[in-house]
Amino acid sequence: MQINGRKHHKVGFGFPLNHYEGITVAIYIEEALKTLSTIFQGFSIDLQELYNKFCYKESPFIMRAKDSIEHIFSELYNVPNEIRTNYFKIKILELLLFLSVVDVKVKGEERPYFTKKQVGTVKNIMKYMTEHIDKNFTLEDLSSKFEIPLTSMKNYFKGVYGTSIYSYMRSYRMQVAALMLRETNENITVIAGKVGYENSSKFASAFKKIMNSLPSEYRRRFI
């Protein structure tokens, strides 16, 4: 679980792969205080105090997933539509109560913090690769082009995106390929070439690892 005050973030949320598995809870303190005071009189959690507790650093607060956290979030995935809104409200209150008793010194983890320039460079690398998805660049090529030491580039990228450059691009390519399989009638070999695979067998193997089915099987599900 990550908590941050979004001090240095743009408005809104962005997911680079256009694919996200997880739950994001955004709390706008002023609006939330009004709602809580209206619906739950006597609710003892001070949101501003929670903000000060978890967001006093430049870097986000990180906490490993434990049973206590998984219990709160896992139950949000399979909720009947007719009770979803009210159920979500209850679970968020449960989350706030849980956070109110967390000892940040015991539970928190230190993670590397990256400067705006470092993050910007990594985002430019990601943008360049995804705009040339049919090309395969070596790490040395990228390091040279963006004038950044190879080791630093790998560390910054993993720190920002949570995975290696290779794993990120493989996942991105498969998401793009899946979109083309769903929405076009193009030959699978052609699609493979468009996402950087000259060998259709290697493409099929990579696709199955990410999407849990062969490209042909995946396409049939959407016909």
TrEMBL record:
<dbReference type="InterPro" id="IPR009057">
    <property type="entry name" value="Homeodomain-like_sf"/>
</dbReference>
<dbReference type="InterPro" id="IPR020449">
    <property type="entry name" value="Tscrpt_reg_AraC-type_HTH"/>
</dbReference>
<dbReference type="GO" id="GO:0043565">
    <property type="term" value="F:sequence-specific DNA binding"/>
</dbReference>
<dbReference type="InterPro" id="IPR018060">
    <property type="entry name" value="HTH_AraC"/>
</dbReference>
<keyword id="KW-0804">Transcription</keyword>
<dbReference type="GO" id="GO:0003700">
    <property type="term" value="F:DNA-binding transcription factor activity"/>
</dbReference>
<dbReference type="InterPro" id="IPR053142">
    <property type="entry name" value="PchR_regulatory_protein"/>
</dbReference>
<keyword id="KW-0238">DNA-binding</keyword>
<protein>
    <submittedName>
        <fullName>Transcriptional regulator, AraC family</fullName>
    </submittedName>
</protein>
<feature type="domain" description="HTH araC/xylS-type">
    <location>
        <begin position="123"/>
        <end position="221"/>
    </location>
</feature>
<keyword id="KW-0805">Transcription regulation</keyword>
<dbReference type="Pfam" id="PF12833">
    <property type="entry name" value="HTH_18"/>
</dbReference>
